Amino acid sequence: MPGYVVQTLEKIEQCGYEAYIVGGCVRDALLGRRVHDWDAATSAPVEATEKMFPRTVLTGRKYGTVTVLTGGRKVEVTTYRADGEYTDSRHPEGVVFVSDIRTDLERRDFTMNAMAMDLRGELLDPFGGREDIAAGLIRCVGDPEKRFSEDALRMLRAVRFSAQLGFEIESGTLDALRGCAHLVSALSAERVRDETEKTIMSSRPEKLYTAFEAGLYDSYLGPSEIPAALGERLAVLSDMPFSRQVRWCGLCAVLTEEEVISDAADFLHRFRLDSRTVSAASRGCGIAVREMPEERLELKRILAAEGRDAAFCAAAVADALYGGSRVRSLKEIAGSGECVRRSDLAVSGADLRDELGIPPGTRMGDILQAIFEHVLAHPEDNTRKKLLKLAASLADD
Ligand code: ATP
Ligand code: MG
């Protein structure tokens, strides 16, 4: 436990309350993984926690969370609570603060996430989280069907953790996941997107197959068969660069090739991804699955026609799917300083008008395009003198 976390827990104890680190940080510490957020749980009410520390932010009054700021670091300190009734498979109706940590651990999703540890290293593990971690199992706390019906996001979290940690979903939990899959349609697309993205950005993106096959994505796919080969095919995503755009593009390419989706842009839009990602990934997918060439000039044409984002997505996905070194070639092209955009040409429409008297219009557009295509193939000709001469000869034709 880093010093600032120890000091935070000490301070709370000195004020007469209980304090534990809890949830994901305990899990990751036991696994020897890097801990990115240290979360604490306490018996202290929010107002008491706020008074203990000179710098705090009330992050969520309703949920009892105070962020304690200590020398540039932060610890989220949350008062023990239980969740109220769930009526919509998404959010509890409200929360109630409780006096014991066990009740707080009970509301948590999986046994591995329902452990707490105090300052002295004493572990509270009422649901066998440590054993499940040792066995590599993701198991719901309590009745899985009830827990998934309360909050359908837990099903996507189960898949995401299995991909990040390389764990299996315990069989009772998996059965419930299949039975409750349809409840995912009640979740906001943003929450589904975020979990999906974490899964495809992990080192085991093929775990997404479990989710497809169980039907978690039915409301995102429309009616389609999930082929048994999809699991193996999805593994290729881990060979792709660690880039959001590329991984979404790769997912679309695999789903397109397996005939699970037919319109990548439509599929991506359903996740409410930002328009830049939708555009790069869907266009990149279109190029990658149509046997993307490897030849330098062809890659340059693609870069010129589709733009940097889509071209790089396509190249990265095609390299991983079919082999080759398109990404390396594209980087070389981008670094060469050669003209790959109309605006990089040594002449503009205004030059053609002023120097050669060509009036603006479709004819001028055609001439500029012809010059541009010439320069893609002959980068050494991108000088004002040579291009004006070329334009003059084209205008005479
Ligand atoms: P990571 O931060 O590495 O993604 P985490 O387990 O810390 O994993 P968070 O979303 O940060 O995940 O949540 C912190 C803790 O809150 C979890 O470990 C779990 O105990 C609890 N938790 C989070 N989301 C849910 C949920 N949907 N249902 C029940 N408990 C949850
Ligand atoms: Mg966390």
Overall shape: elongated
Strand order in space, largest sheet: 3-4-5-2-1-8-9
**DSSP strand content:** 5-15%
Largest sheet composition: 7 strands, mixed
Brief summary of the model shown:
The protein has helices at residues 3-14, 24-31, 46-52, 101-106, 129-135, 144-150, 153-165, 171-180, 189-200, 208-214, 218-221, 230-234, 244-257, 264-270, 275-289, 296-306, 308-322, 326-336, 349-356, 362-377, 384-396, and strands at 19-22, 39-42, 56-60, 65-70, 73-79, 81-83, 95-97, 116-117, 123-124, 137-138, 168-169. The N and C termini lie far apart (77 Å).
Chain-wise SSE layout:
Elements: H1 3-14, E1 19-22, H2 24-31, E2 39-42, H3 46-52, E3 56-60, E4 65-70, E5 73-79, E6 81-83, E7 95-97, H4 101-106, E8 116-117, E9 123-124, H5 129-135, E10 137-138, H6 144-150, H7 153-165, E11 168-169, H8 171-180, H9 189-200, H10 208-214, H11 218-221, H12 230-234, H13 244-257, H14 264-270, H15 275-289, H16 296-306, H17 308-322, H18 326-336, H19 349-356, H20 362-377, H21 384-396
Parallel strand pairs: 2-5, 10-11
Antiparallel strand pairs: 1-2, 1-8, 3-4, 4-5, 6-7, 8-9
Adenosine-5'-triphosphate is lined by residues 23-24, 37, 39, 108-109, 113-114, 151, 153-154.
